[in-house]
Amino acid sequence: MLLRGKNYGNDTIDVLNKSCFSQYDILACSRSVILSAAAGITIVFIVFKIYKYHIFKHKQIQHYAIFYITAAEMLVCIASFITGHIYPQVKFSANFLKLLTFSIICHLHWSSSARAYNREDLIQHAINPGLCLYMIYCTAVALMGMVDVGITWNECIKPYWLMLSIADFVAVQCFALAAVYITVKTNCLPTLASIKSAQRRDLMTVVIAFELSAIFSFSFDALMRFGTEETGCSAIFGHSQFFYSATELIFNVGKYLLPVWAILVVFQPVENSTSASDITISGGYNLDGASNTSRSSIRGFHQYQRMCVPSTTTLTSDDSSRNHCMYPSLLNSPQSPSNFNSSPPPLTNNTDVIGYTNRITLNCNPREDGKYFGKFQHHNLTTISEESNINAVDNLERLSIRSEKSASSYY
């Protein structure tokens, strides 16, 4: 009877075509409302997170891309939850945005690890090409699925859903293996135990969330492949709306919402407020922005660079309004004369380095041919006062704490 009245029978017993608007069913509508409400609340948190990133002026552009794409994914998911399987194009769009978000997370994690181990060549020769090929495959499969659509009775039989799930599952396994390898390698680095623990916790949270999402996606799509043209996809659930709605609810939460919640917890912006007034001239602060915490944490300690004393031969200049140049920078320049190579007298134990220092400056002005002329001046100058000394060291300590706080957040 069902085969003879196939059109009428399919519309009546098919559990996939029920929703709040078309073929109304209270269980299907309740499922759509719950999922849409959860996705809507998630969007609110994403918007607050994006606002926080812009306030802090976070440097890594991948973080902005992740949250903007995730917000678009949640909007598409709400449309998908409301319409159900009536419009498969919406579900393919949500699936594609999820895979795109994961690929950006992979690029962020792998490129940061490659730079940490001084293997920037892997970014151009392995990471970028591999992720590009992965996204080309996902884009092609999603487009084919959007074009080759059918009715809800046999839509699950199409191979595109399982093809995307397999790609997602394989990519997550590669990400997990790389995370385990990098975690083992990180344990050998001389990093604080608290920083290692925070990095490992954040990384494993992302891995577990996407691992569960891939397992949910692969299991559900593999299960739907048992449908046939005669019995349809609805027969897998015994044409019961209760079993299908419960399965669909768990599947959508695990596939779409769980990874987004993990991203909201793990990814945190780092305040970028370092200005020129925060950076003091000291040997404990490197040019790359990293501070030497072992020295800057000692109050009253200065790192003075020993300067070379020039010979009696001086350059001439009578203009006292010329700019001042430090002698060591001129000594290391190609234009420095050979008579600037005399060594300074050795320091003894009785020398008060903190209270007294010899500073040698050069009054210099560039000539038309690009060279400098001027005369050296030797000043006996006392160092900064103890109060300003403490303030300078406090600045270095703040920079050290800020750098450690930035390192504690792996992403």
In short:
The chain has 411 residues and is mainly α.
Q: How would you describe this protein?
A:
- This protein has 411 residues and is mostly helical.
- The chain contains eleven helices and three strands.
- It has helices at residues 6-13, 26-56, 61-83, 88-116, 121-147, 160-186, 193-224, 241-266, 293-296, 327-331, 386-408, and strands at 323-326, 357-366, 372-381.
- It has a three-stranded antiparallel beta sheet with strand order 1-2-3.
- A hairpin with a 5-residue loop joins strand 2 (357-366) and strand 3.
- The model is unreliable at 1-9, 274-309, 311-342, 348-367, 369-393 and 405-410 (pLDDT under 50).
| Alpha-beta classification | mainly alpha
- Output the CATH topology of the largest domain: Rhopdopsin 7-helix transmembrane proteins
Which architecture of the largest domain would the CATH scheme give at its second level?
Up-down Bundle
Distance between the termini: 60 Å
Q: Tally the helices: what do you get?
A: 11
Instruction: Give the mean pLDDT.
Output: 72
Order of helices and strands: HHHHHHHHHEHEEH
Radius of gyration: 32 Å
Which parts are unreliable, with pLDDT below 50 for 5 consecutive residues or more?
1-9, 274-309, 311-342, 348-367, 369-393, 405-410
The largest beta-sheet arranges its strands as 1-2-3
What percentage of amino acids are in beta strands?
A: 5-15%
Report the sheet with the most strands, covering strand number, pairing sense and barrel closure: 3 strands, antiparallel
> Looking at the structure, what is the overall shape?
elongated
Q: How is the quaternary structure best described?
A: single chain
Tally of extended strands?
A: 3
| CATH class descriptor name of the largest domain | Mainly Alpha
Share of helical residues: 55-70%
Number of spatially distinct domains: 3
